Amino acid sequence: MLSITHTKNLTGAIVSGDYWDIDELNHAIYAVIGEEGKYYDLEGSRARILKVCHDFRQASQGERNIEFVRNGLHKDSMKEHDLVAPEKNVYFTVEILWPELIFAAIALNDFIKLYQKKHSFPLLDAHVTTIRKFQSAIGASLSETLDEEEFQNFMKLLNNQETNVHKYAIQFVDVLNLNYIKMTKEQREESLGKYALKLAIQDNEYVAFRNQVIKSANVTKSTIHDLALTAEYPEDIEW
After folding, report:
1. 8 Å CB contact between 110 and 42
2. Spatial separation of the C-alpha atoms in residues 165 and 210, rounded to whole Å
3. Tens digits of per-residue pLDDT, 136-178?
């Protein structure tokens, strides 16, 4: 079963599951977000989600971390069925920065809304159900750190699909990621709820940032999602 827990320093989340858990989530996300160019106003958000999917894929291929999780099988069961088998299953894990993961959860709402319009029974769609479980797991993990008001406000926005990442200035996620990395554990604990709401609501800080990105895009004749942020991520992150 896919699980999402905090890293030791609250820098990010540990996404953990067996091969089939992670593979199912990746397939669901690819099905829902569609091919490149399908939703032009969501191209930036799509690219951002695919960045997370790349981390998932590397994890499922054993290129990140591996842990062993008890599978419920015990010696008495094996004796009863004359069976020799391992008592633990291989789980693959990967760390993802919290702002990055939260934005992916928010952005998937927009793709789900568009995807469901083309399906006769959207509430029973397997891909949507898989993604909803993923979003729910993120919410469950955030509930351990966010205060009650922040948590309720964020989950209401996510649950009611009151989010909008059309023509989103995705460089803002990088800004939040980099600021979040620089914080202490205590600062992250205090700020995580504010970051979650900032990503969901698009406050004045975001609007000012987006306007600046648009100005730069106009100068270079680029699209808003093609501009790269000059700041670089640290090679080693203390998770």
Report:
1. yes
2. 12
3. 999 999 999 999 999 999 999 988 877 889 999 999 999 999 9
For residues 28 and 114, is the Cβ–Cβ distance under 8 A? Answer: no
Judge whether 99 and 237 are in contact, CB under 8 Å: no
Record the tokens describing residue 4, joined without a space: 């999402």
- Residue that the structure tokens 């942020």 belong to: 229
> Cα–Cα distance between 127 and 30 in angstroms, integer?
9
CA distance 147 to 41: 33
Q: Which residues contact 217 (CB under 8 A, 6 or more apart)?
A: 223, 224, 226, 227
**How many other CB atoms are there within 10 angstroms of residue 119's CB atom?**
12
What is the four-CA torsion angle of 10, 11, 15, 16, rounded to 10 degrees?
Answer: -60
- What's the residue count for the chain? 239
Q: pLDDT for 15-48, tens place per residue? A: 999 999 999 999 999 999 999 989 989 999 999 9
Angle between the N-to-C axes of helices 98-116 and 43-60, in degrees from 0 to 180, rounded to the nearest 10: 110
